[in-house]
Design brief:
Strand content: 5-15%
Number of strands: 8
Order of helices and strands: HHEHHHHHHHHHEEEHHHHHEEEEHHHH
Largest sheet: 4 strands, mixed
Structural class: alpha+beta
Mean pLDDT: 79
Low-confidence stretches: 53-101, 254-259
Number of domains: 3
Strand order of the largest sheet: 3-2-5-6
Shape: flat
Distance between the termini: 81 Å
Radius of gyration: 31 Å
Length: 474
C-alpha cells in the first residue's frame, strides 16, 4: 500500500562564493599563486592591476591596436585567451629563491650508467631501473613488477634475472648502498666497499645472520649465536652505525623540489615594541575585472533585435564576469579570515612571540581561536593547515602553536613543556641503561607534572623516540 508523507527539512546549502572561499582558504601560498595563475589563464575577464608594459619587449605587445568587439567572440565557439603574467618579483627576498644548482639522484646515477660498457638494450633497462629508485635511494618494487612495466610502457620483453644483473651494476654506483631493496641489503653493500678488517667482517656476519636481533638490540643473543666477544661486537656495531641507511638523501629531487619550498604565509615583526602582522604577497598579483567587457554587455543590451549568437556571447561574458567577481571576493575573504586568525594566535601566544622561549607557549586548541575570531572550528583548522608564519625566531607552522594542557603544581601548562623535559632527560640518560617510561614518569612527578606512564609513552612515540631497549648502547 502506497503512502504519501509530507516532511519539512531545513537544509543549509553553501553558495558558490562560500564554496570557492573554503577551497582557497585551505591553500598554502605557493598553491594559491598557482591557482591565481590558472584563473588568469582561463578567465579572459580577469586581469592584473597596473601591469607595467614598459618592462615588456616589443615582441610581447600585441601590434593590433584596434579595440575588440563582440564579433571577435562570435566567430569562435570557444575563444582562446592568453594572459601575460609576471612571475618575478623585484622585491622577492633571497630566502624565498626557488633556484637550485644541485644535481638530482637520478641524474647522478644516469651519468654513471653512461660510463659503463653496456649495449643499447642494457642501457635502456638500466635507465628504467634508475627511474624506479625512490628519493631515499631504494628500489622498493620487485623486479618482476618492473618487467611488466617495461613490457607495457616500452614494448620490451625482459626477465627478472636480466634486470638483476643490471641492478648489480647500479648497486656499485655512488652513493654507496644505492639501488638496495631492503635496509639489510643497503648496509651490506656499503660494508662490501670497505676494507675487510675483522670488525667489518663481523659486521657483515651480524647483518647476514642476526639482522633481526641487531635491529631489536638483543646484543646478548648475537654474542651467543655468533660466539664473538663483547669488544668485537661493540666495534662491529659501531661500524654499522656509521653507515648511511638512506643513501639517496642529500640529493635534490628534481620532481618535487618546488613542492618542498616553505614560504611563510604571514610576516610578523615587532617595531618599537608594537606587533606588525602582514600577509606575504610574494608573487601575488592584484586582480580586477576588465571594464571593457562590461561596456560590451551595455552596448549590446541596447540592441533591439540581437542575434542568437550575440545573446549566447553576452551570456558567456556575463558568466565570466560573475566568476571573476566571485574569485576576487573569495580572495579578499580569504585574506580577512587568515589575518583575523593569525592575529588571534599572536595575541594568545604573545609572550612566546616576544621572547622566543617555548616555555612561554600556552596550551591552545582550535576552539580557543574559534571563540576569539567568531569563526567555526573547521574554518580555523583550514587556516592553520599547511600555513607558516615568519617571526624573529624563525619560520613556524601554525600547528606548532597548538597543544593541549595538563595540570602541574603551578597551574595548567602546555604538553610541549612536558615533551621538552622528556627529550632533555633522554638526551642526558646513560645509554647503557636508558630510562624507561616508568622512570621518566617519576622524574616528571618530581618536577611537578603528575601524568601516567602510558601518557609518557604516548608523548615519546609522538616524538618518534624509541623505547628504552632500542636506545641502549654497548
Amino acid at each position: 500500500m502506497l503512502k504519501q508523507n509530507l516532511q519539512q527539512k531545513l537544509i543549509q546549502k553553501l553558495s558558490p562564493l562560500q564554496i570557492q572561499t573554503i577551497k582557497l582558504l585551505e591553500l598554502p601560498l605557493i598553491q594559491l599563486e598557482e591557482r591565481i595563475k590558472k584563473e588568469l589563464e582561463e578567465n579572459p575577464v580577469l586581469e592584473e592591476e597596473d601591469v607595467n608594459f614598459d618592462d615588456q619587449t616589443p615582441d610581447t605587445i600585441d601590434s593590433n591596436d584596434d579595440e575588440f568587439t563582440l564579433e571577435d567572440y562570435i566567430e569562435d565557439d570557444i575563444p582562446n585567451y592568453k594572459t601575460s603574467v609576471n612571475n618575478n618579483s623585484r622585491d622577492e627576498p633571497k630566502e624565498y629563491s626557488t633556484m637550485s644548482n644541485s644535481v638530482s639522484l637520478q641524474q647522478l646515477l644516469e651519468e654513471q650508467l653512461a660510463f659503463h660498457y653496456l649495449n643499447n638494450r642494457e642501457h635502456t633497462l638500466g635507465l628504467f631501473i634508475i627511474g624506479s629508485i625512490d628519493n631515499d635511494g631504494y628500489l622498493r618494487r620487485d623486479l618482476l613488477s618492473i618487467t611488466d612495466d617495461i613490457a607495457f610502457k616500452m614494448g620490451m620483453e625482459s626477465t627478472a634475472e636480466e634486470l638483476e644483473e643490471i641492478l648489480k651494476i647500479i648497486q656499485t654506483f655512488d652513493p654507496p648502498g644505492v639501488g638496495a631493496r631492503t635496509l639489510k641489503e643497503c648496509l651490506l653493500i656499503q660494508l662490501k666497499n670497505k676494507e675487510q678488517t675483522n670488525e667489518i667482517k663481523a659486521a657483515k656476519l651480524i647483518l647476514d645472520e642476526c639482522f633481526d636481533e641487531f635491529s631489536k638490540k638483543h646484543y646478548s643473543k648475537i654474542i651467543l649465536k655468533l660466539n664473538i666477544g663483547e669488544d668485537l661486537l661493540r666495534d662491529s656495531v659501531h661500524e654499522i652505525l656509521k653507515l648511511n641507511p638512506k643513501p639517496g638523501t642529500g640529493y635534490e629531487n628534481m620532481y618535487t623540489e618546488q613542492a618542498q619550498q616553505i614560504i611563510p604565509d604571514f610576516i610578523l615583526e615587532y617595531k618599537n615594541g608594537e606587533a606588525e602582522l602582514s600577509l606575504n604577497s610574494h608573487d601575488m598579483p592584484e586582480l580586477k575585472v576588465n571594464k571593457d567587457y562590461s561596456e560590451i554587455i551595455d552596448n549590446y543590451a541596447s540592441k533591439d533585435n540581437p542575434s542568437q549568437d550575440e545573446k549566447d556571447t553576452v551570456n558567456f561574458v556575463k558568466q565570466k564576469i560573475d566568476s571573476a567577481k566571485w574569485f576576487i571576493d573569495s580572495l579578499k575573504q580569504r585574506q580577512q579570515t587568515l589575518l583575523s586568525t593569525m592575529w588571534a594566535i599572536m595575541k594568545f601566544q604573545n609572550e612566546y612571540f616576544k621572547t622566543g622561549d617555548e616555555s612561554n607557549l600556552r596550551p591552545m586548541i582550535l576552539k580557543d581561536i574559534a571563540e576569539r575570531t567568531g569563526l567555526d572550528v573547521s574554518t580555523v583548522s583550514r587556516v592553520v593547515n599547511s600555513k607558516y608564519v615568519q617571526c624573529d625566531w624563525g619560520i613556524f607552522s601554525l600547528r606548532f602553536f597548538f597543544s593541549e594542557g595538563i595540570q602541574s603544581k603551578t597551574g595548567e601548562v602546555s604538553t610541549r613543556e612536558v615533551k621538552k623535559i622528556i627529550v632533555e632527560c633522554i638526551n642526558n640518560e646513560n645509554k647503557v641503561t636508558p630510562l624507561t617510561d616508568e622512570e621518566l614518569k617519576v622524574i616528571l612527578k618530581n618536577k611537578g607534572y603528575v601524568i601516567a606512564r602510558r601518557t609518557v609513552a604516548k608523548y615519546r612515540e609522538k616524538m618518534n623516540i624509541p623505547v628504552a631497549r632500542l636506545r641502549k648502547e654497548l
